[in-house]
Write a structure and sequence with these properties.
Layout (H helix, E strand, L loop, with lengths): L6 E4 L1 H5 L9 H13 L4 E7 L11 H7 L7 E6 L2 H9 L4 E7 L2 H8 L3 H14 L5 E7 L12 H12 L6 E5 L6 H14 L5 E5 L6 H10 L4 E4 L19 H10 L8 H15 L7 H4 L17
Bound molecules: zinc ion.
Zinc ion (ZN) binds next to loops.
């Protein structure tokens, strides 16, 4: 894996803050996106097109989309759960939509408002009618476990994925929405998907609810995944998944990967700065660990950067 490149999709502007009681202004969200760009993060989930009554933090989706910098190489994604959300994302100029549905029926009904099969049917319709210049990727939530139904059998996950793959998503993400997966689960499910669909680009969306997130990220990379979602500071949660906590912290992932010889294109120092800025805006301690400890070795010139003689 050393020498490989892993793409990090920054999701703090969407998954990261959607469940935060402190509402960020549109300008703050755009500053967060700018700071992520400063750090070298290029692909970002910037907002979601959902009912603002259900997710008030995302009520300014159109304003965020309108304010995105167009001259900095950013590739911006809007999260959509249905046709209406997809149409809103396209109407405000986004060129990638991440369509999300859930592997378990109960969670899909709670989160998407319809049974999983209806979400699959809507995905089919979106894929058939999407403008040619709009990329439609797919995220399957609760791919490793459901807060309401418990275990999600592999056969159920594969049945949902197979029904979706007929409609050729540009990329397929497995989401551990409630952070229950272990590295063994990641390897087993990624290899099952990879065997069935050898060519589709795979992405992992991991939450660190039970402290397995970073280990799961590494397991995913060992299993061949080259794209991971992460959130500055490890912020995040799901309004419809009880006790779900944050995504894997972007800067912790960058630290692990770069120190392992895996390139990310992300500056650890700038990512830590952005995470600290976000922590200040949210007015609470966020879960990221490297932002508290600092990188290693420390950059030249900082106190402690040169080892003391014994
Ligand atoms: Zn999530």
């Amino acid at each position: 894996m050393s020498g490989d490149f892993v793409e990090i999709v920054e999701v703090s502007p969407r998954d990261g803050i959607q469940n935060e009681p402190t509402l960020l202004s549109t300008d703050d969200k755009l500053e967060l996106i700018g700071r992520a760009l400063d750090a070298g993060l290029r692909r970002m989930e910037v907002t979601s097109f959902v009912n603002p009554k259900r997710v008030p933090q995302m009520a300014d989706a159109e304003a965020v989309a309108a304010g995105l910098p167009t001259d900095r190489g950013g590739r911006y994604i809007g999260l959509t759960l249905n046709r209406r959300g997809f149409d809103r994302a396209v109407a405000c100029g986004l060129r990638e939509a991440n369509y999300a549905l859930v592997a378990s029926e109960t969670f899909n009904i709670r989160n998407q408002g319809v049974p999983t099969d209806d979400s699959i049917a809507a995905f089919a319709e979106i894929r058939q009618s999407a403008p040619a210049d709009v990329t439609v990727s797919l995220t399957v939530g609760a791919a490793f476990g459901c807060p309401f139904e418990g275990e999600v059998p592999l056969a159920r996950l594969m049945a949902v994925i197979e029904a979706c793959m007929v409609h050729a998503p540009a990329e397929l993400a497995l989401a551990d929405t409630i952070g229950v997966a272990t590295p063994a689960d990641i390897k087993a499910r990624i290899s099952a998907v990879r065997s069935a669909f050898p060519d589709v680009p795979l992405r992992l969306h991991l939450h660190n609810t039970r402290n397995t997130g970073i280990a799961n990220a590494w397991a995913g990379i060992e299993a061949g995944v080259r794209c991971l979602d992460a959130s500055l500071g490890g912020v995040g949660g799901c309004p419809f998944a009880p006790r779900a906590t944050g995504n894997i912290p972007t800067e912790d992932l960058v630290y692990m990967l770069e120190r392992s010889g895996v390139k990310t294109g992300v500056s650890l120092e700038a990512a830590m700065d952005a995470a600290l800025w976000l922590e200040g805006k949210l007015e609470k301690t966020v879960p990221g660990m490297v932002m508290k400890a600092g990188g290693f070795p420390k950059p030249q010139g900082e106190p402690g950067s040169s080892p003391r003689a014994a």
